[in-house]
Amino acid sequence: FVLAVNGGCGDYQSSVLSFDSDGDIDWSLDASLGDGQTKACGVSGEGIVLLFLDQTVWVDRLVFIDGTGNVRTGPEVDLDTDVRVRTMIVDGDRILLGGYSNNSPWTGCLDRSGALIWQRTLEDFSGSVSDMAVSPDGSLTLCGFMSESDGLPLAGLCRLDADGNVEWSRRFGGGEYQYFESVSILDDGGIILAGT
Q: From CA 102, how far away is CA 68, in angstroms rounded?
């Protein structure tokens, strides 16, 4: 498994560690990433993909790391300045991102060149995307919290088709601060959620 962490105060230094199945470190990277912070990390068949904020020029860029820790700096990613990314999935040639924009749940899809294919902001709600899962048909299930402007955060679940169009959304709870942190899709299409 892979762990990406940020350290420092003001000037961030990002580290990536790869562990074997026994929990021992296979390899780690520190300074080779440069000054900046990792916003999200995803794993593909070829290795690891990072969304990295390069603080030397203040741009987001993709960074590709192969299975042995070799780094290839990728293209810049042109995201709106108000987008905050919390989670990433690499799905074939698509890089799916989730987080929030202007305090509303947000998701976007990039190709491997860093070009934005589509993005969606769920503007009817305030909140954030915490986790995502991809179904075999390419649809995307998002979870997190989604509240109306006059209420406490409710646990939220939303399904988008492969082109980023909202198919449905649901909210759960009431009266308390509630949210989903993790989502998984079962082989039969069912959904498993974990949260508070």
A: 38
Q: pTM (2 decimals)? A: 0.85
Query: 44: closest CA among 92, 103, 114, 98?
Result: 92
Per residue in 62-88, pLDDT (tens digit) is 888 888 888 888 888 888 878 888 899
> Which residue in the block uniquely carries the two structure tokens 């700096």?
73
The two structure tokens encoding residue 178: 């509630």
Query: DSSP letters of the chain?
Result: -EEEEEESSSS-EEEEEEE-TTS-EEEEESGGG-BEEEEEEEEETTEEEEEEEETTTTEEEEEEEETT--EEEEEEE---TTEEEEEEEEETTEEEEEEEETTEEEEEEEETTS-EEEEEE-TTSEEEEEEEEE-TTS-EEEEEEEE-TTS---EEEEEE-TTS-EEEEEEE--SS---EEEEEE-TTS-EEEEE-
What angle is formed at CA 58 by the lines to CA 125 and CA 102, rounded to 5 degrees?
10
**What is the bridge-based pairing of β-strands 13-19 and 2-7?**
antiparallel
User: Furthest-apart CA pair in the chain: how many Å?
Assistant: 49
Q: Kindly state the tokens that stand for 194.
A: 């974990």
The amino acid present at 132, given as its one-letter code, is: M
